[in-house]
Structures are given as C-alpha cells and as structure tokens.
Amino acid sequence: MTKTKLLKLRRILSPLAAWAILFFSTVWYASPQPLQRIYIAPDDHTDYMWAGNVPTYRRALLEMLDYYLDLTDKTAGNPSPYQSRFACDGSFWMWNYEKHRSAAQFQRLLGRIADGHISVPLTTLVSCHGGTPAEAVLRGLYYAGRVERRSGLRFPLAVAMENQTLPYGLGSLWAGAGARYSWRGICNCKSKVDSPGDREHDIYWWTGPDGSRVLMKWNSSIGSNRQLGGYAESFDPAQAVDDASAYAGGARYPYQVIGSFGRGWDGLETLTDAFVPTAQAKTNATRQVIVSNEQDFFQDFEAAYGGDEDALAGAEVRVGGRFVNQRLAAVPIEPNAVRKSVIPTPAKSADRYSQISPGSRLVKKSKPIDAFFRPNARIHART
C-alpha cells in the first residue's frame, strides 16, 4: 500500500474512531447505574421490665409515640423518603396508647398507622420464644387482630428478637394469623450458635410444615448487636447506611434493596430526629436512603425479588446436630391445619371475644395487660 493510500485511509478512520468513542461514552454515561434502596428504621426494642417497672414503661411508651407523631407532622412536607417514620415493636404500644390517651389521640395514632408513618406488628412484644406453647403465641396476637377488625387496618409484621434460634412452627402460627413479614436481629451474647456471621440466607421465605410462609429478614451478623444482624442495626444510622451499602449486591446478599432496622438497643427511651437528616445526607447518585417503617422495605423487596423462589427457598434448621433445609425438614401434618386454627373469628361470635386482652384467659372479660405482666399477679375473669 502506498503512502498516499495510507494517509487517505487514516483520514477516513480517524472520524470513525472519534464517533465510536463518543458513541460508547454516551451509552456508558447514559445507562442507568445500579441504584441501591436502603431502608433505615428507628424502633425502640422494648425490653419490657429491663430498664424500669410498669409505670416507667407506660410513661416511656406514651412519650415516644407522642414524640414521633409530632415529628411526623413536622416532616410531612418533605419528600416521602425523608419523612419521619417509626416502628413500634409490639402491639402493646398501641394498647397502652388506647388505654392512657384520649379517643382523639388514639384516632390520630391509627391515622398515622394507616398512612404508613407508624407501624405496629401483630405480636405483643419482642418475645424470646423457646418452648412457648402455641396457645400462648396465639393469645399474643388477639389485641392486634381485634384492632384490625374494628378499624379496617392490617398488621403484616410479626417479630421476635435476640435469641440465636427460632421455633420452627412459629412462622406458621404467624402466617395463619395474617402476618407476611418478619425481621430478626440477635444478641450474640449468652446463648450462641457457631457462625452467626455465616447464615446461608440473609432473607428468605420462612416456610412452615403446612406450606404457609413469612418473608424473613435475618442478616448475618457483621459485628456487634448494634450493627447489621443485631437487634439495633441502625443504632448509628449513618454507619448503618454505609454498612448496608457495602453489604448490598454482594455474594451473601445479592440484592439492591436492603433494610437496617432498630435504634433503641437496651435503652428505656428512644427519642431521636437523626434519621431524616441522615437519609438526606447519605442519598447520592448510586443509592436512595429511605426513613422506613420496616413494612415498606418488605413490600419493596417482595415486589422486586419475591418471585425468585429458588434464591429465597428457605433457611437451614438444626436437626439432630446437623443443618437441613427447612423444606426438607417439614413434619407431615394435615395440610393447612395450623391455618385453620387461627382464622379470624366468625362475625357471629366476634363480640364474644371482643374484650380479650393479650395474655388473658379465653373468656368474655379480662383484666388489662398490666395485670398480666405484674409479678405474682393473678388474672380473675368473670364468664
């Protein structure tokens, strides 16, 4: 090839190369980058009787709900991700508020539950279930179920905290009562499992022996119980965002929607306005940080990934000293037997049980829950 032809070819190729570089650069920068959605949720972790007596906790629960209702009003003009939200970790909060605040104040609380700024689970408190009888578990759901029927609300969360293991059938009781989601953080202090930082699944469909299931978020512990995997994952909300951002999309958690829940740890009260400014400051081009009521995380995650049955098939359970998949460990029982035992009370007899409080005897009337939690107190009920 002559020198003249080489120069002519260079003149032709140079513009093509320039256009190619411009084209691929434009495509690269125009393509949407993976956007993480990080949900940080303040809650108090109600260690009932850990830091005070009945009057002390009554005051603290009332003050906290008043505080977060007011904070919700103050941030109502913000974009949705930066509005205040708060997660009660037991229906006892709602029961206490109904008993010790006016009817108008209680309706205000129900309104904020309805619009998603306050969340309440079906469960009474964050109990450590071990050998708890099934009946006791179900009694703990009565009050929330009564409010559901009375107010037209739904409480899709159920929670139990701190212990390193969960009873296998607990999820079926929850699911049969209407729960769809749960999260768990461990103490990793007294009773321990071998590898709390090496869970097979960090989020999964917890499937019971009757086929019912609950979407469970139970992250591997990355450090202390005030970090991801503990019961106060968002103790430091700014650090929680950084931890979750680094964790999301990795081999152990291959998802871009992630939650970091819990602020209260072992304190009596949690009064903080830090979550809103943290979400604002930590949001950037690659991640959206959202102040969460916990329920919104599950709804987002289920919509994005809930159909991946293989990836979310279930966690392993310990049977006879070895781990087996929950589905393989299912105990043969009559299909839907658990579900049948916890379906809503028929309308004809609903009034008969309308006065049942958590922990009471199965009779028409009972004393309030305070009596149930007082040491050596006996509950006297008239039939």
Report on the structure:
The structure is a single chain. The chain has 383 residues and is α/β, with parallel strands linked by helices. The chain has one domain (36-341): 7-stranded beta/alpha barrel, CATH 3.20.110. It contains 12 helices and 10 strands. A 3-stranded parallel β-sheet has the order 7-1-8, sandwiched between helices. Strands 4-6-5 form a 3-stranded mixed β-sheet. A two-stranded parallel ribbon has the order 2-3. Strand 9 and strand 10 (322-325) form a beta hairpin. The protein is globular and about 50 Å long.
What fold name goes in the CATH topology slot? 7-stranded beta/alpha barrel
| CATH level-two architecture | Alpha-Beta Barrel
Quaternary structure annotation: single chain
For CATH, the homologous superfamily is named as Glycoside hydrolase 38, N terminal domain
| Main beta-sheet strand count, sense and barrel state | 3 strands, parallel
Structural class: alpha/beta
Number of H- or I-type helical stretches: 12
Low-confidence stretches: 5-10, 12-31, 315-383
Give the H and E element order: HEHEHHEHHHEEEHEHEHEEHH
Let me know the number of strands: 10
Number of domains: 1
